[in-house]
Amino acid sequence: MNQASNASGPSGISTLWIALRAGIVFILICGIVYPLATTGIAQAIMPHQANGSLVKDAEGHVVGSALIGQNFADPKYFQGRVSSISYQAEASGSNNYGPSNPELLNRTQASIDAWKAANPDVPVDRVPISLLTNSASGLDPHISPESAQVQIPRISKLTGISPEQLGQLVDAHTAGRDLGVFGEPRVNVLELNLALRALLAK
User: Fold this and answer.
1) Residue 120 and residue 62 share a domain
2) CA 6 to CA 13: how far, in whole Å?
3) Residue-number span of the structural domain to which 145 is assigned
4) pTM, whole model, 2 decimals?
5) What is the dihedral of CA 10, 12, 13, 19, to 10 degrees?
6) Are residues 20 and 110 located together in one domain of the fold?
7) 54: helix, coil or strand?
8) Contact, 138 vs 85, CB < 8 A?
9) Which first-to-last residue range defines the signal peptide (predicted)?
10) Same domain membership, residue 13 and residue 61
């Protein structure tokens, strides 16, 4: 009887009021103050990254993000890694097939056949394996410098740009290891292709 009275009495109302005030405080801190503070700091320190690392073309139009790969259907441009999800960011991921899975073997064979058809001058055994297989996310915007260089003969033939010029273009867009030790050298395919398009326009 005493417990029931306490739950609905002055002490019960006091507890409810304390919980309500605590909820309001946490809503203000976690829902308003913290998001505004982190957004403001990000915009002040690294606005490019905070806004999605957007990439613009020579005319100033946004053409993509440096963090998300794209399909380049035109063979005169550099190609990125295979993506099982066609670089759809809302469906990030990949089928984790084992090495003996028939679907993985068929998919890899299809990539090999496509390479042979588009690059008859470059034997498959010279192609980095990463260029024939997809990444775990399916969104990888980078390829290795070797994966870019092995595409130069095809692009040179289709564009008339000398292999030497294309090699210099790849070198100019090759990023080194972070802080000199982390990760591997890499080439952003979108940024490289924008530079190639600018070269073609000349």
Assistant:
1) yes
2) 9
3) 53-201
4) 0.77
5) 140
6) no
7) strand
8) yes
9) none
10) no
> Which is nearest to 202 in space by CA: 168, 165, 164?
165
How would you classify the pairing of strands 62-65 and 54-56? antiparallel
Q: Say if residues 136 and 97 touch (Cβ distance below 8 Å).
A: no
Are 43 and 84 part of one and the same domain?
no
Torsion angle of C-alpha atoms 64, 111, 119, 131, degrees rounded to 10: 60
The Cα–Cα gap between 199 and 195 comes to 6
Q: Partners of 178 in the beta sheet?
A: 182
The 3 state secondary structure assigned to 72-103 is CCCCCCCCCCECCCCCCHHHCCCCCCCCCCHH
Q: Taking the mean position of all CA atoms in its chain, how far away is CA 89?
A: 8
**Same domain flag for 167 and 67:** yes
Do 41 and 101 fall within a single domain?
Answer: no
Overall domain count for the chain: 2
Q: Do residue 37 and residue 65 come from a single domain? A: no
Query: What is the Cβ-side half-sphere exposure of residue 113, based on CA atoms within 13 angstroms?
Result: 6
**pLDDT, mean over the chain:** 88
pLDDT in tens, 126-149: 999 999 988 888 899 999 999 999
